[in-house]
Input
Amino acid sequence: MFGMPTPNTLLDVIQAAPAGRTAILLPEAGIHVTYESLRNQVRSMADALASLGIQKGDRISTVLPNGLPAIVSFLAASIAGTAAPLNPGYREEEFRFYLEDTNAKLVLCPADGAGEARRAAAALGIPARSLEMDAAGVVRIVDAPGGKTASAPSPDDVALVLHTSGSTGRPKRVPILHRNIAASVCNIVAHYSLTRKDTALCVMPLFHVHGLVASTLSTLYSGGTVVAPAKFNPLSFWRTVRDAHVTWYSAVPTIHSLLLSRAGEERPAGAEGLRFIRSCSAALPPEMMEKMERVFGAPVLEAYGMTEASHQMASNPQPPAVRKPGSVGPGTGIKISIMDEAGNHLPSDTRGEVVIQGPNVVSGYENNPEANAKSFTNGWFRTGDQGFLDADGYLVLTGRIKELINRGGEKIGPREIDEVLLSHPAVGEAVAFGVPHPTWGEEVAAAVVLKEPAAEADILAFCKQRLADFKCPKKLYIINTIPRTATGKIQRGEVARALTA
Ligand code: AMP
Output
């Protein structure tokens, strides 16, 4: 790829570009960070982490908004140990779970804020350190000691650990190796022909593979520029696209939909510089794709990604190849097949479970033999998604076997919400489920049966204290009995249909 050696680790990924080019642009502060500066900052922070006692395999949790500190600390943590980025919106109890479950050795936070994460770390006896950034765009760990040098990672070291929500039980830990991410980055760069001329606007959170791998690491490997605002802002989005000469962005349909509502029928200034728009992490309705292409005037390429595949599995191709609305395209550097429950591969146009195989796919969940036994069949990873391959090998997703609520791309395990509701003293039974929502795709709702009187507002406030805002039910049905199937089972989909009909 452009004469650069194939990367095996994240250290290789950031070595590919010439020193003086802009790696990262922080649009709010107007700060340009060169590749030389990025490499130096990552090295220095990896050494600081080693000097703080971090060794290979040690988990470093980060609780940061998008921006340079999130990118530098992610890379440094994956080199000195293993990066474990967390959603800064979690509540103290959620931080406690994730910090304990990942066995975090250190927590990195912004100099101010992150109170809930700091309290959770203190309760568990885990040290928390602050990050600071100066006006020149250099990030450091405040008062970090020196003296040690972090050794280079090997391809089989775990670079990143993330959680995915399970249908049953607690969230599962996904250990992603350096070589898994490096393979994913190569697939993405090749598929979209990313080069040094490209500038990506990263509006997806950096604590997920979508923002990290697709927008950020792929761009860094191609030697392009990542524009990294602190968060998605529909008011300044197109101004940033225009001023920074953005050539592509990747986002969830919720973000595309907000941008479309603001644009009306008028092409926003700046959109003429876009080579393509990528959509991933939730289904893109064909009408939305058609409207985006018409109003924004750029090809819209829907892709399919998941944490266990270090993000991308499939994507529609660039023109002149055909992009099909309602399909996520053919596999990108990965094998995709459709399997029945018994493990037989199914012919094209036949629905079944989407299974995958490839160098970007993790080899198993951490410390979870039960989930591994269920998720792998004859070397194929079962995605929990349902779909079929058409005659051209394009994948069409038709549903989900796994129980997840997909709220604007953010995956929520409904059991986690059931458990919080059931811990309320007045709640006897609880079932959380997703309901269709015009902007979020799906929104969280729940049904409860009370064993003693309680007000809806009181139960919702109880949830708010224990669950990040995106997970809190927005609608609560207080009912006498939970609807069951003919065989007496509770099925979330059935409950949702019965209550929202
Ligand atoms: P995550 O691990 O958070 O990236 O979530 C992965 C899941 O997101 C997949 O297993 C799918 O259920 C869903 N997903 C990703 N991309 C799409 C898409 N283009 N259309 C529908 N669902 C998607």
In short: Residues 164, 209, 280-283, 302, 304-307, 328, 383-385, 397, 400, 406, 411 surround adenosine monophosphate (CB under 6 Å). The mean pLDDT is 96. Residues 10-231 form a domain with the Rossmann fold fold (CATH 3.40.50.12780).
